[in-house]
Fold this protein.
Amino acid sequence: MDFSENAAIAAIREELGEAGCLRIELGIGDDAALWQPSRSDRSAISTDAFVDGVHFQRRVTSLDRIGARAMNASLSDLAAMGARPRLATVALGIPHDLTLGDLRSLYRGIARVGKGAQLAVAGGDCTASPVLSIAVTVLGEVRASHAKRRSGARFGDTIAVTGALGASAAGLRTLGDSHLLDGALRQSALDAYELARARLSEGRWLAASANVHAMMDCSDGLGRDCARMAERSGVGMLLDRIPVAPEMAALARATGEDAEELALAAGEDYELIVAIATPAFAHLQARFHKRFGGALLAVGYCDAQAGVRWRRSGATVPVDRYGWDHFEVGEKR
Amino acid sequence: MDFSENAAIAAIREELGEAGCLRIELGIGDDAALWQPSRSDRSAISTDAFVDGVHFQRRVTSLDRIGARAMNASLSDLAAMGARPRLATVALGIPHDLTLGDLRSLYRGIARVGKGAQLAVAGGDCTASPVLSIAVTVLGEVRASHAKRRSGARFGDTIAVTGALGASAAGLRTLGDSHLLDGALRQSALDAYELARARLSEGRWLAASANVHAMMDCSDGLGRDCARMAERSGVGMLLDRIPVAPEMAALARATGEDAEELALAAGEDYELIVAIATPAFAHLQARFHKRFGGALLAVGYCDAQAGVRWRRSGATVPVDRYGWDHFEVGEKR
């Protein structure tokens, strides 16, 4: 790189601005950032790491969008807990060919998403590294009674998602093969992948309902993530409707693949997976629509059988085969 | 790597044990970790990143010690704030040649230091990466009136350190050239480098004194870190005694270098740099010795001149030339 650590810190401070720091007492530049936690709430923390060539590709995605994406992916964990963001720290591994302008672009994306989430980027670390890597830690706050775990789903609960699935995965596929989609659909798939928004407002709103028993974000695919929620909750799940985003439907038409199968395996949309007391579902769904415009989409329900199964056209198959392991698939998480 | 993400998480949980998790309500395995912050204290957070080939060398240091070192380096920031650790998250970049046994060793070191600091490793992330990298976020708590900033040093304050400097840097040099030191001195230098302990108890004890005006850890060398404290505090500093660790003194004798110059530039000891009201220094020093055995060593004082200067044998020189920039020197931070 063509700059010193002091130049990097100065550029970062400039991109972050001062606005985000009002909610903390002491931020970047001291040994640790300091703040007064809410006296009535629990604190929630989550860390995610993103590596060039694994979670993103510098050669096809702008640094601004890489920064935004890393923040949204991290914030999605707070959304899934029903927490409101308070601050973040960012540990950056900087390769030799990253310029100060690149660093500014990256932090512009980080700052924009941070500001949108009313969060202060309170500290972090920059270090030389053979590859661009970004580790984001987000800290939020949530009323103890509102915090939603993965383990709360009950027999008979309706399983719903906060939106159709697969737009982000379609965007990723289009990055690799630009002929798969075209025009507006291609752009909206790319935007869904690169600018996928953490469902923070939706998460907090849903978390406030006692009829919401469990919540998590759908980052590794509906199949895999439902399997995690089912296992932690000690229930089985039967999925009977897979809502497919238009971008993924178009991609499947273009390639001749099965759109629902793709959507079941598709991660990174940051839609929330929610287990809801079935008698309360219709009412909650109507209120959700009124509040957010989008739909709360039922995908199945919890039952007493083993594992998560997918039923369509009369046949029922286990979903273990869908979704991915972070280590097995090198492309993304 | 030869293992799946699930196997990695299982191994990590096993190495961490359950003990550390008692102080948090929800840890590894949900979207975020959850805990009840202290109602009367401030929260403090700090993030540090460590990369193979930059901050450590996998080929010469055991993974257990690499894990321990990453934790101590991170905890040192809480020590400098006077905070007691509460939890940590760890983001790991795992290269293809790391085995599950290696991962266990790394976490054994992390867990040992975490347990010693009464801290829960509450979450994190594992991802494939071309190089082993470890980003640690530590969260601690401190009474608002005790939190020590870098910016509090005043004219006339005595500047002191919690121990002699350079043992860790001597250890690093020995790693590169095993003939520099031998026998017990070599081992103690290596231990100082690989097992350098965050001064958590010392930091909390010093932070409780109103006569301690500023505190930071000496991670980039006394010269450079004093310059940071002086700048943030709006004071100058004159250093007139550089306490040299025996390991560094022996190394300097072996190489014909200047021991004090080396000690001034030597980082990573995690000794604390403390600005203390001069009238209270002798008494605090006596109490520190009684409490911790080790000595609180005066290295100079704050004055009204510009910058940090080093006076010896009658000559006074600015210290800007000592210490290092994380980006300029590839070996360590």
User: Anything to note?
Assistant: Chain A has a mean pLDDT of 90.
